[in-house]
């Protein structure tokens, strides 16, 4: 139990918010705790050569693979000490909205294979896929908390909508002090990709068009709000907006086309 409290910034300990976060952590984590008092998410590393095959291109990488001490994959879509107060506020807002089932927090793991069987919405996408234990999801590729993509997604199934509470870290810098546009494209793609997967199963991005309206300061918190607008045969049309946490600044607007795949194995 102590290890879970340590995930929450100490300044929050007496606040109502900390109660919410703490309660949520307790309810979402029923995994057994380590007996030695160490954090459940203490990281253990090993190194080994693996082969990554993508679109016919083969390359050898040496990667480090991360596991929680309990042996369970770490869910990165839960609060950690790098999350700002603004990030926690938005997270708690959507956790509240999830209590009646309208919204659903999407767990997030470092490896695609760790997601298999854990989230029924995405089971169709993951079943039958060839997934290596040693590759990493791009947005979860950094070991240190807070340096890259800190985010949590919430799905609204009836609205075919996904929101991502997102805090870009310093390794995503483009212009000094601001997030690189490519990182913004990546979080948009992943957010609407989640929507597209929900409605259509296996999909790939065919087109993504982004208007960058206002730069995103590093360390700020934004809400990436994407939804499916319509499906025509195999084509899934989506749109997305990126707003500042206070809803006052529109950072980016996007439209996208995803194509439903019959099978990834043919490529
Ligand atoms: C997000 C997390 C949620 C949580 C999930 C939990 C666990 C999940 C674990 C892992 C999930 C991983 C990632 C999350 C998901 C998404 C985020 C990343 C998504 C990407 O980052 S993915 C990489 C970039 N992506 C590519 O690397 C695609 C390269 N590309 C191709 O592989 C082909 O190009 C393809 C397959 C797209 C289509 O090929 P194809 O042969 O199947 O289909 P075809 O060409 O026949 O087109 C059929 C109809 O679409 C029209 N059409 C096609 N392309 C168009 C275009 N660009 N503009 C306008 N119309 C277009 C045609 O005109 C025709 O239209 P019509 O039927 O009317 O004639």
What does this structure look like?
- This protein has helices spanning 2-5, 16-28, 85-98, 112-115, 123-126, 181-200; strands at residues 47-54, 57-64, 104-106, 149-156, 161-168, 203-212, 222-232, 235-244, 250-260.
- 22% of the residues lie in helices and 29% in strands.
- It is an alpha+beta fold and 267 residues long.
- The model is unreliable at 1-65 and 263-267 (pLDDT under 50).
- Strand 7 (222-232) and strand 8 (235-244) form a beta hairpin.
- It has one domain (75-266): Thiol Ester Dehydrase, Chain A (Roll).
- It has a seven-stranded antiparallel beta sheet.
- It binds ligand 3IX.
- InterPro entries: HotDog_dom_sf, THEM4/THEM5_acyl-CoA_thioest, Thioestr_dom.
- One of its GO terms (molecular function) is long-chain fatty acyl-CoA hydrolase activity.
- It comes from Crocodylus porosus.
- Belongs to the THEM4/THEM5 thioesterase family.
- It is a peripheral membrane protein.
Outline the secondary-structure elements.
Blueprint: H1 2-5, H2 16-28, E1 47-54, E2 57-64, H3 85-98, E3 104-106, H4 112-115, H5 123-126, E4 149-156, E5 161-168, H6 181-200, E6 203-212, E7 222-232, E8 235-244, E9 250-260
Helix pairs in contact: 2-3
The protein binds ligand 3IX.
Short description:
This protein is 22% helix and 29% strand.
């Amino acid at each position: 139990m102590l290890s879970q409290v340590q995930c929450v910034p100490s300044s929050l300990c007496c606040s109502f918010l900390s109660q919410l976060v703490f309660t949520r952590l307790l309810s979402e984590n029923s995994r057994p705790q380590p007996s030695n008092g160490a954090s459940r998410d203490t990281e253990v590393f090993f190194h080994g050569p693996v082969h990554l095959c993508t679109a016919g291109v083969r390359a050898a990488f040496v990667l480090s693979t991360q596991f929680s001490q309990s042996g369970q994959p770490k869910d990165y879509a839960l609060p950690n000490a790098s999350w700002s107060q603004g990030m926690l506020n938005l997270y708690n807002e959507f956790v509240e909205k999830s209590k009646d089932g309208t919204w659903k927090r999407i767990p997030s793991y470092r490896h695609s294979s760790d997601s298999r069987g854990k989230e029924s919405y995405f089971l169709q996408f993951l079943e039958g896929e060839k997934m290596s234990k040693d590759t990493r999801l791009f947005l979860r590729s950094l070991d240190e908390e807070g340096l890259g993509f800190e985010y949590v997604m919430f799905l609204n199934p009836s609205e075919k909508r996904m929101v991502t509470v997102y805090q870009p870290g310093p390794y995503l810098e483009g212009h000094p002090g601001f997030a690189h546009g490519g990182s913004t494209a990546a979080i948009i793609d992943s957010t609407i990709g989640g929507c597209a997967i929900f409605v259509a199963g296996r999909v790939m991005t065919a087109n993504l068009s982004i208007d960058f309206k206002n730069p995103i300061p590093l360390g700020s918190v934004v809400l990436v709000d994407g939804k499916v607008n319509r499906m025509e045969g195999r084509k899934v049309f989506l749109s997305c907006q990126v707003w500042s946490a206070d809803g006052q600044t529109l950072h980016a607007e996007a439209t996208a086309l995803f194509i439903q795949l019959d099978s990834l194995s043919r490529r």
